[in-house]
Design brief:
This protein is mainly α. Helix content is 58%, strand content 0%. The structure holds zinc ion. The site of zinc ion has 9 residues, from helix 2.
């Protein structure tokens, strides 16, 4: 005969097994339902993440493309037309035409601001790249200290930690950012489209 305690044990065991097959638990991303890891959605092409990155990239503190706002960023990300800011510079007319509710005048403005954005200062550029924990102020100081984004990419975590406000976890986060394949692809595309990271 099965006792109540045994029943509970069986139920608890079944729940453990079910939990194992469900994958990691925890808060889910509101956009793509991936389980959030350390405050970040791990999904590389999560539209929410791409939208946030585009908005940071276009902000006045970064490369300044104010004509491209929240609605346009959400559209570009939602249609999977853009995975990272580098792809913004490779969109064709047919891609832009897929954005509903954007007038010809606004589109012309976006195009002209995109062209102007290529002359953004390295500190602003770095802010736009959205490295974890790197504020606008820290981005400027890092570029001043290392001289270029290329030099920052090659910097050892130890030398990064000599900068005021950079602890070990931030230093390793910066290193990880530069090693990530999507981020490397973003830098490559940006370079191919007229951005310079070595000055
Ligand atoms: Zn997500």
């Amino acid at each position: 005969m099965i006792t109540t305690t045994n029943d509970r044990r069986v139920v608890s065991l079944l729940q453990t097994i079910a939990g194992f097959f469900k994958g990691p638990s925890g808060p889910k991303c509101s956009e793509c339902s991936s389980t959030i890891i350390g405050d970040v959605c791990p999904n590389l092409d999560c539209p929410l993440k791409v939208t946030e990155w585009l908005l940071r990239w276009c902000s006045p503190e970064a490369v300044n493309i104010p004509a491209l706002g929240q609605a346009e960023a959400e559209h570009l990300a939602g249609l999977r037309l853009v995975l990272h800011p580098g792809e913004l510079y490779e969109l064709g007319q047919g891609d832009w035409d897929r954005l509903d509710g954007v007038s010809a005048g606004q589109l012309a403005e976006i195009h002209s601001q995109i062209e102007d954005s290529k002359s953004a200062k390295p500190g602003a550029l770095l802010h736009g790249l959205r490295l974890p924990g790197v504020s606008g102020d820290l981005a400027k100081r890092l570029v001043n200290e290392f001289g270029s984004i290329d030099a920052l990419r090659d910097a050892k975590p130890k030398s990064l930690q000599e900068i005021d406000g950079v602890d070990e976890s931030l230093a390793f986060g910066v290193r990880r950012w530069f090693r990530d394949s999507i981020n490397r692809q973003a830098l490559k595309k940006l370079e191919q489209n007229g951005f310079s990271f070595n000055a």
